[in-house]
Design goal:
Strand order of the largest sheet: 22-23-1-24
Strand content: 25-35%
Number of helices: 15
């Protein structure tokens, strides 16, 4: 199993290109199941989660073509998806257990074929994420849902029916699933308390390009007027705001200066304001965002995660690590998922001063220094928090179980090395040979 080795102490400086957004790409891939025509997605990131989703669609009968491409002058991937007729309507456990987002096939397959079986995804390292909202909404639209032998079995022999569906929480997953399902339903569906994340709007834009009638995306009320069928389209995936926020934190924690090429400041207003309040210079450039902490005297800031446009839960771990280098104390409050402080014990081993209160909050106090250590990644975003700590720690830090990082950060060590980090990936074979 690969590891990442970091020798801390280097100030980062230069430019990092922000890749296509993982959290946008995954539902976009599943949207291709709504039509027999070809859906082409450009600016796709090279990530293990994309490979896992592609493997699932291949199992369902989708034909996938992969192309090397250049987007905005940078190497990228383009994928074309074509599903003339699904050869399976089952998303097996072996696929869903690897990647929870596999449940995005639920809405499209049910809408197009009237039947789908999806393995229950269960919990994950950052807490349980129930499917109740998805299933309740589909039942309201006329589907019959049965849970049997660990699978969601959904049937709707006649077409799904458009309904007014209020969500009790602004779930991103449920908003994506129901929006996709509603495109082929009879009548009009109105999702109330819909998620407002940029990834929702990106999915809506693809669906509209495919012939769907959708309005209100980006607000809490999305209206979808069902159509008879959808057609193919070409769509460019939006830049990854979480990757951009993560590398912004890398610039700040090392007191460096990085231009985040392709980053969209309008999708990061809350995190960027936190950085400004800490004492960091943030400016928009013709190509993205410039983060300058070269002369910053950082002051700790309280953070509370919230649904978009609030502070993203997917940046909580990274900004918690950032507060270790700031003066004073900062309270980090997690309101979205439980068990999202699992990286804290690893940071404590490096000399951090953090006190966790229950599952919801942590008090972080700045420290003089961190010391390199062997640490274990517990989930995707926690992994990057450990990378950040390693960048400033004295000596050598080894981050184990980096397959978490490969799920959401494209070419991480190459990007960090290009701006001055002393970082390398250790492959298991290399490790054995060294012994």
């Amino acid at each position: 199993m690969d590891k990442i080795k970091i020798i801390g102490g280097n100030k980062l400086s230069g430019k990092i290109y922000i890749s296509g957004a993982k959290n946008a790409a995954l539902p976009l891939i599943c949207a291709s199941l709504l039509t027999k025509d070809t859906v082409t997605l450009t600016n796709m990131p090279e990530l293990s989660d994309i490979k896992s989703m592609n493997a699932l669609l291949l199992q369902l009968g989708t034909q996938i073509d992969e192309f090397d491409d250049f987007v905005d002058g940078h190497p990228s991937k383009t994928y074309s998806y074509r599903t003339p007729e699904a050869t399976s309507l089952i998303a097996p456990y072996d696929y869903v257990r690897k990647m929870r987002a596999s449940y995005y096939v639920l809405g499209p397959l049910l809408a197009r074929y009237g039947h789908v079986e999806v393995s229950l995804p269960g919990g994950c390292a950052i807490g349980a994420r129930p499917m109740d909202i998805h299933l309740s909404a589909l039942e309201q639209m006329g589907a019959k849902i049965e849970i049997k032998n660990g699978y969601i079995i959904a049937d709707c022999p006649n077409k799904l029916q458009g309904k007014r569906i209020p969500f009790n929480i602004a779930s991103v997953g449920a908003t994506c699933n129901i929006m996709m399902a509603a495109t082929l339903a009879q009548g009009t569906t109105i999702i109330e308390n819909a998620a407002k994340e940029p990834e929702i709007s990106d999915l809506a834009e693809l669906l509209i390009a495919m012939g769907a009638k959708i309005s209100g995306h980006g607000t809490s009320t999305i209206t979808i007027e069902g159509v008879e069928s959808l057609h193919g389209a070409v769509h460019k995936v939006i830049p990854d705001r979480i990757e951009a926020g993560s590398y912004a934190a890398a610039a700040v924690i090392t007191r460096g200066k990085i231009e985040l090429i392709n980053a969209q400041p309008q999708t990061l207003q809350n995190p960027l304001q936190i950085l400004k309040d800490m004492g960091v210079k943030i400016s928009e450039t013709p190509n993205g965002i410039l983060v300058d902490a070269t002369h910053a005297h950082l002051v700790g800031q309280d953070i509370m995660t919230d649904y978009y446009p609030g502070f993203p839960t997917d940046l909580q771990a990274q900004f918690l690590a950032l507060m270790l280098t700031a003066d004073g104390a900062a309270m980090i409050t997690e309101t979205i998922w439980e068990n999202r402080f699992m990286h804290v014990p690893e940071l404590l081993r490096m000399g951090a001063n953090i006190k966790v209160h229950g599952h919801a909050s942590a008090i972080v106090r700045g420290v003089e220094k961190l010391s390199g250590a062997q640490v274990m990644a517990t989930d995707l975003r926690a992994s990057f928090a450990l990378i950040l700590a390693g960048l400033i720690a004295e000596g050598e830090t080894i981050v184990n179980r980096v397959y978490h990082l490969d799920r959401g950060y494209e070419h991480l060590e190459e990007k960090l090395k290009a701006v001055g980090a002393d970082i390398e990936r250790i492959h298991e074979a290399d490790d054995i040979a060294a012994e």
